[in-house]
Amino acid sequence: MQSYLTSGFLLLSLLLQIGTQCDAAAFAPGDNLVETLQGVEMVDSDLSTRRNMMGTLSVVIIRALGLNGDGLMQTNAVARMWYSSFYYQTNEIKSDNPTWNAVYNLGVVETHLPLKVEVWDKDVGKDDLLISCTKYLTQGMHTFTCSGNGQVEVKYSLVCEPGLTGNQCQVGK
Ligand SMILES: [Ca+2]
Ligand SMILES: [Ca+2]
To answer: Which residues form the C2 domain (predicted)?
Structure first.
């Protein structure tokens, strides 16, 4: 009798605990324990889906070549990059062939988003957009070049979070 009461009490406190963690309205008085546990499982799989497609991203804006922002004068070259809510801008180099080697460590990010890179010539008044491109990332170390008015070289490293693999870190091991 005592153990029956104890297990009944444990069941009740488990239900109360789950009820406070989830939407209490989802648990009607008639619900049994099996339905309740299925509810918990659904919450868990939502969480693991959210942990999917994550990796550590570093981007290096290496250099640009053959820019022509100011005719006979050297370009006032600046590169900009965007990824998710991140935005970075290099320092300005007065050259048609600037080398920045600017390293940006973004930390753990979602992997399915496009990386956008632009190169600009700074002017008094309106700046000139020389190169613009977007690139979807894959895991590993990669170097790519974007062309426009000249070229820009970009390198990045994407390391999947533990337990994830595939091009965009989407598949669990
Ligand atoms: Ca210009
Ligand atoms: Ca300029």
So the answer is: 41-156
Q: Which residue matches tokens 């426009």?
A: 148
pLDDT tens profile 28-80: 454 444 444 454 444 444 455 556 899 999 999 999 999 999 999 999 999 99
3-class SS of residue 22: coil
- Please state, in angstroms and rounded to a whole number, the distance separating the CA atoms of residues 17 and 131: 56
Q: How far is the CA of 87 from the centre of ligand 1 (A)?
A: 23
Angstrom distance (rounded) from CA 129 to CA 148: 9
Cα of 121 to ligand 2 centre, how many Å? 5
Q: Which ligand lies nearest to the CA atom of residue 93 in the structure?
A: 2
pLDDT tens digits, one per residue of 117-155: 999 999 999 999 999 999 999 999 999 999 999 999 999
Residues 6+ apart with CB under 8 A from 171: 164, 165
CA distance readout (Å), 20 to 14, 30, 112: 10, 17, 34
**For residue 153, how far is its CA from the centre of ligand 1 (angstroms)?**
21
